[in-house]
Design brief:
4 helices; 248 residues; alpha+beta; 41% strand; 5-stranded antiparallel beta sheet; 17% helix
Length: 248
């Protein structure tokens, strides 16, 4: 997501004994360096290579920096439904789009550019017990204690979610945990990029182990978010959970 620069380069040769006005020439060279960036490097012959950057060169460099910060203007965008309907009579293009997008359900594609992601449930999977399936409450904030983990147990989180309207790019899960007001853990997991479809997606997180011991047991507060590459937040959950000696 060029501006040409002007550079003046010259060589300061050794001053010959029979040259007239050499001292005046030298003073004029150094007087011209005022207000410009100046770099010198010596060579084996004793001469120096001088490079002077003019004010126009400095201004051009600043313009280049400004250009680098400018956002690239993209062409007109269209909805996924419009993309699917384009060139639908071209068999090769249709197959290419199917390979790129997967099996897109046309009924799940809306007339908007914005994707919609619905987080349907969260499951805690552990070999020590049956899966704990947690439904997402209205508003995203469960009331009271949401779940309990056994200390020292291995578990995985699994999300079930649905994508509608358009492709969601770079969906991420972030989680921050506090105990007695002190942040004790923070994590981020890339879930991926998904096209809209009628069937829900599932994503399983890497295995984790709950801490154990007297200081690990107790009540924790946490905040989980699901965001995409554009930092659009689809769900924020604020909840509490316990770590105890046994599963509850």
């Amino acid at each position: 997501m060029s501006v040409a620069t002007v550079k003046d380069m010259g060589f300061d040769d050794k001053v010959k004994d029979n040259e007239e006005g050499a001292g005046d020439d030298t003073s004029r060279v150094h007087a011209g360096n005022t207000g410009t960036d100046h770099e010198e490097s010596g060579d084996e012959g004793g001469g120096t290579l001088s490079r002077h950057r003019s004010e126009s060169s400095i201004a051009a460099t600043e313009d280049e920096d400004d250009d680098g910060e400018r956002k690239i203007e993209l062409g007109p965008q269209c909805t996924l439904k419009e993309q699917l309907e384009k060139d639908k009579d071209d068999e090769s293009l249709r197959r290419w789009k199917e390979q790129l997008l997967g099996s897109v359900d046309i009924n799940s594609v809306g007339e908007t550019l914005e994707p919609n992601v619905k987080i349907l449930s969260l499951a805690i999977k552990s070999a020590d017990r049956h899966d704990i399936v947690l439904a997402i409450p209205e508003g995203g904030n469960p009331k009271g204690l949401w779940f309990t983990l056994k200390e020292g147990s291995r578990y995985r989180l699994m999300f079930t979610f649905q994508v509608e309207n358009n492709i969601v790019s770079g969906l991420k899960y972030t989680n921050t945990v506090w105990k007695t007001g002190i942040k004790v853990d923070s994590s981020k997991e890339m879930i991926g990029t998904f096209s809209p479809q009628a069937e829900p997606y599932t994503h399983e997180m890497p295995e984790e182990t709950t801490p154990s011991g007297m200081f690990a047991r107790g009540t924790y507060s946490a905040r989980s978010k699901f965001v995409d590459d554009d930092n659009k937040c689809y769900l924020e959950i604020n909840y509490t959970f316990d770590i105890r000696r046994e599963w509850q």
